[in-house]
């Protein structure tokens, strides 16, 4: 079970390796939604997303022996760069498994942090198995993207910081891919204030968590088509799902168009770059998906890594 | 003369009307320049730029009688929206003089804050005279864009905050258009730490301040061609110039290409939208224009208002 003490321990462990990101308010956003919203800017985090929190916590908690051998991760997204950077900080070897068709910019960025990239075939290989084989044959520790208590605890530190800065929130909204961020953040928040209300956000068509909660068990959906590329997982995690069941008041769904409009609002009114997944929690507030009696809302802007061409398209849309 | 006490008074006066903007660091920026840089994010300020500080200070300092009549300003840029918003906050009428060819988005934004827009002909009219005529005939108070001690004092509050957050800076770098921001910020900084070093930044071709400092008197240059639209003034102010003479160790010049590359770095690595003028101080650091013994640098990102099409062009350049 994910314990509050593990999250507090994570905060002590990682605090000199990650940014304490600012909490930002926007009167124009507040005026538009008629509520008070506090944005936790994980898009301004190192490597551009909250993922560095969990990766750093996991890697710093390794035994000296494990750290001497190194780590492996599979990801074509923010987790790849987070593990690469956290490993470099810890002076540890990192191998990242990426699909052969991963964007060249992400391969370069990951290598730029000193990691070794190994390619798997998206059609032929099971990426998790591919990474586990590397882990086994080279005695590396796998750093899972979400389904690991140390990773979840690391992600949860962003809610600790948010509630230190704004103690009287009545609710927190986070994006929900595999559920690591929500699991960590909700566990931290409930321990601090048991009456706080927690909402997870998924993209339409990527509603594996919502379906799973309704069914009462983990559901695996077909590969989702959404611009929120951090939400393309097909099922919640085995360890994150029970936390979601316990802590999520609701799962809110938003469309690609709502994501894009929210990204534009955040870009031009709030002057922040967020990636599609990173905009989903804000989109849920902007498009009125929350209950009416929620008034002081913490929103996690979870990441800001977006390709130049994609950003140009959104800016001119 | 601009007094430190006037700036401290401004801080007390405006603090509940403006954002205390965050100070952000970027390890990738620091690694690239080999120094420690602290970014004061006035692009995250209300109305998207530091200008709201000076406008608010000026308007809140009006007598009850003056405030009952209203204010007027001339600007096609950030000062227009700042005065409009500050006037709305103070429940005061605002008239903004804009050129007939002002971008429609700026006209709409200014009206959106409740101000009345009056158009002048850029070829035929002197904009300052145009605004002074309105002020006289309608008994309004002119809110100058920079050449006013209350406006300068307001702008200076951003350096007060920066030095509260990071007391041991050895230098501060600010953009320099008319000189209001530099005058306020440098006066505040020198009062707190007389050994702090202050640098103003101008765009190549918009070097009216540098030329004036070399000549020892205010020089008027032809209308500058630069993408830094906040630097298209042709001479430093009568009141700002003596402060520049006293406090500026140097004026650093940067090119449009350097501005664009800096905007891209800030956009994609730091996830912040800055406008061309807002990126100039960071550009001076990124392109090595400062002396080598300057190590802990405060940089003001002065604004973030950029048109969607311009941002799209920069993102895809």
Describe the structure.
Two copies of one chain form a homodimer. Chain A is an alpha/beta fold. Chain A has two domains: 216 residues, Rossmann fold (3-Layer(aba) Sandwich); 91 residues, Rossmann fold (3-Layer(aba) Sandwich). In chain A, the strands form two sheets. In chain A, strands 1-2-10-7-8-9 form a six-stranded mixed β-sheet, sandwiched between helices. The first copy, chain A, has a four-stranded parallel β-sheet with strand order 5-4-3-6, sandwiched between helices. In chain A, helix 9 links the parallel strand 7 and strand 8. The longest helix of chain A is centred in the middle third of the chain and has 17 residues. Chain A is globular. The first copy, chain A, starts with a helix and ends with a helix. The mean pLDDT of chain A is 96. Chains A and B meet through helix 12 and helix 14 of A and helix 12 and helix 14 of B.
Short description:
Chain A has 317 residues and is α/β, with parallel strands linked by helices.
Mean pLDDT of chain A equals 96
* First-residue to last-residue Cα separation of chain A: 45 Å
Computed structural class of chain A? alpha/beta
Question: Ranges of chain A with pLDDT <50 over ≥5 residues?
Answer: none
**Helix proportion range of chain A:** 40-55%
């Amino acid at each position: 079970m994910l314990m509050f003490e593990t999250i507090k321990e994570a905060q002590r462990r990682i605090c000199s390796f990650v940014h304490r990101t600012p909490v930002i308010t926007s009167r124009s956003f507040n005026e538009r939604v008629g509520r008070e919203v506090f944005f936790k800017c994980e898009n301004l985090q190192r490597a551009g997303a909250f993922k560095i929190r969990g990766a750093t916590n996991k890697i710093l908690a390794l035994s000296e022996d494990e750290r001497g051998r190194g780590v492996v991760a599979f990801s074509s997204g923010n987790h790849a760069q987070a593990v690469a950077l956290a490993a470099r900080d810890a002076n540890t070897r990192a191998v990242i498994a990426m699909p052969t068709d991963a964007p060249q910019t992400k391969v370069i960025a990951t290598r730029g942090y000193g990691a070794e990239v190994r390619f798997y075939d998206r059609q032929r290989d099971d990426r998790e198995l591919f990474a586990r084989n590397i882990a086994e044959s080279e005695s590396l520790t796998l750093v899972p993207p979400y389904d690991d208590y140390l990773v979840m605890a690391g992600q949860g530190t962003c809610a600790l910081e948010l509630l230190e800065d704004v103690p009287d929130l009545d609710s927190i909204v986070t994006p929900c891919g595999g559920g690591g961020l929500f699991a960590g953040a909700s566990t931290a928040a409930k321990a601090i204030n048991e009456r706080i209300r927690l909402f997870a956000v998924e993209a339409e068509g990527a509603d594996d968590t919502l379906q799973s909660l309704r069914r009462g068990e983990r559901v695996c959906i077909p590969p989702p088509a959404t611009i929120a590329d951090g939400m393309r997982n097909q099922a919640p995690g085995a360890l994150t799902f029970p936390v979601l069941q316990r802590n999520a008041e609701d799962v809110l769904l938003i469309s690609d168009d709502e994501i894009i409009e929210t990204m534009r609002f955040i870009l031009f009114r709030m002057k922040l770059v967020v990636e599609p997944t990173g905009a989903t929690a804000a989109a849920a507030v902007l498009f009125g998906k929350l209950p009416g009696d929620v008034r002081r809302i913490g929103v996690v802007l979870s990441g800001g890594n977006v390709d130049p061409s994609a950003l140009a398209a959104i800016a001119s849309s």
